[in-house]
Design a protein that fits this description.
This protein has strands at residues 6-11, 18-22, 40-45, 56-58, 61-62, 64-67, 72-76, 103-105, 123-128, 152-156, 161-168, 171-178, 187-192, 198-202, 215-219, 235-237, 240-241, 245-250, 262-267, 282-285, 289-299, 308-317, 323-328, 340-348, 359-366, 369-377, 380-384, 398-407, 418-425. With 429 residues, it is an all-beta fold.
């Protein structure tokens, strides 16, 4: 009990330990009338425990008993013997003492855990690695080594890293960097596969709109003298238009860390047939429809030659994606939270535009993520920039994000397409 916002939760199938990351309120600094600054936690749970919320951030960081009706502060709660005096309480009145998590930290450098660095607070409890020697066999194994066996992984959504946590005799023995040469962009979930590779779901930076940084990544172990997989990058221009549509494809950005020679294979229409082995071919789509062009890149060198990766390009022949843009508001205009903001968007499409299908959402931007607040419809309208409880424009890194989207009707042979636009306003100081 006493968890505020647990995210993520992982069970170590071998040891039975439950790993929990718990989010805190967002206060940037401590307030003697309310309590401590935001405090993220990582806990290793082996027995029923009380982790404090809403009385204590940790066993040593109590909140203050605050009367929301009168706006007055009382005494700090007793973390050793918290009491639930809520009139809505139907359970225990005298609660267990607050358990201390293995890790706790705020925005600045932690005196206890300097390895966690500084930044926002977005703790994620990752899995424990279970080494399987069988997964290291084969032509091109990807399994992580036995060094990580039994280590659990902590990752930070706001700080873009992965840390390895070593527990010894029920105590946290060390925190170490893991694959710190790689950027994991807002990692939001993580699991080891049966092949021993680490799969990372990356949210990327954005506010619920189209996000090119969002991806599912796989991190392989290749050994000290191993061969890196190439990184495939594919693009096309144009990617939508009426038939016949000639698309110029490009593999610009594709690379191999070892400098190996690469083989390119393009499949323009997802039929499993290689249509071109040129790095930058062109192709003409004669019939309307929705297509996925795939580039597979394979290296031809190294001890484990033949590693490959792929990238895709979505092609729409017949229907063209709507283009949506904000006429107002405009970035940099005077703005205060609480303002009612008038918006106007312009939609350009190859089909008649129905403004009633335009959706515009006001999102409270908070650091690099957002909290959707209000959605309305129409090419013009107003949205009031409310700030929900628990966020303070004076101390939090807040912005007002307006996200517009429009989906056309498609046609007889092409799927509907969506266009999006986004504008971000910062409070005028």
């Amino acid at each position: 009990m006493g968890l505020r916002n647990p995210f993520r939760i992982e069970l170590n199938q071998s040891s039975g330990e439950l790993y929990i990351g718990d989010y805190s309120p967002d206060a940037r600094t401590a307030n003697p009338l309310r309590g401590p600054a935001g405090t993220g936690k990582w806990a290793v749970v082996t027995e029923p425990s009380n982790y404090g919320w809403p009385y204590c951030a940790t066993a040593e960081l109590p909140y203050v008993d605050y009367d929301f009706a009168t706006g007055t502060s009382g005494e700090a709660f007793d973390c050793a013997a918290p009491v639930n005096e809520s009139p809505n309480n139907t359970g225990l009145r005298e609660l267990p003492p607050v358990a201390q998590p293995e890790v706790w930290y705020s925005y600045g450098l932690s005196p206890e855990f300097p390895e966690l660095e500084t930044g926002g607070i977005g703790p994620m409890a990752g899995p424990a690695y279970q080494f399987d020697e069988k997964a290291t066999k084969g032509r091109a194994p990807v399994a992580w080594p036995s060094y990580y066996d039994g280590k659990s992984f902590f990752y930070e959504w706001t700080r873009d890293y992965i840390k390895g946590m070593t527990m010894e005799n029920g105590e946290l023995a060390s925190i170490e960097n893991v694959v710190d040469s790689l950027v994991v962009d807002n990692p939001i979930d993580m699991e080891f596969g049966p092949n021993g590779a680490l799969y990372v779901l990356e949210y990327g930076d954005g506010y619920f709109g189209e996000n090119p940084d969002a991806q599912l990544s796989r991190i392989d172990y290749i050994g000290p003298n191993g061969n890196h997989s190439p990184v495939a990058v594919a693009s096309g221009s144009p990617v939508a238009g009426s038939a016949p549509l000639t698309v110029q494809f490009s593999s610009e950005g594709t690379n191999d860390a070892d400098g190996d020679k690469l083989r390119y294979k393009w499949d323009f229409n997802s039929d499993g047939v290689v249509d071109s082995e040129e790095p930058n071919p062109s192709f003409t789509y004669e019939e309307t429809g929705t297509y996925t062009a795939t580039l597979q890149v394979t290296d031809l060198g190294g001890k484990h030659r033949g590693r490959s990766s792929s990238a895709e390009v979505a092609i729409e022949v017949g229907n063209q994606a709507p283009v949506i843009e904000f006429i107002s508001p405009v970035a940099g205009q005077d703005f205060k939270f609480g303002d009612t903001v008038t918006y106007e968007v312009r939609v350009t499409d190859d089909q008649p535009v129905d403004c009633s299908l335009v959706e515009v959402t006001y999102i409270l931007g908070h650091h690099t993520h957002g909290h959707p607040q209000t959605t309305t419809s129409g090419c013009t309208g107003t949205l009031t920039t409310t700030v929900p409880e628990g966020h303070d424009p004076a101390v939090d890194d807040l912005s007002a994000v307006f996200s517009a989207s429009y989906t056309d009707a498609g046609d007889a042979s092409s799927a509907p397409l969506t266009g999006t636009a986004e504008i971000v306003l910062f409070e005028t100081r």
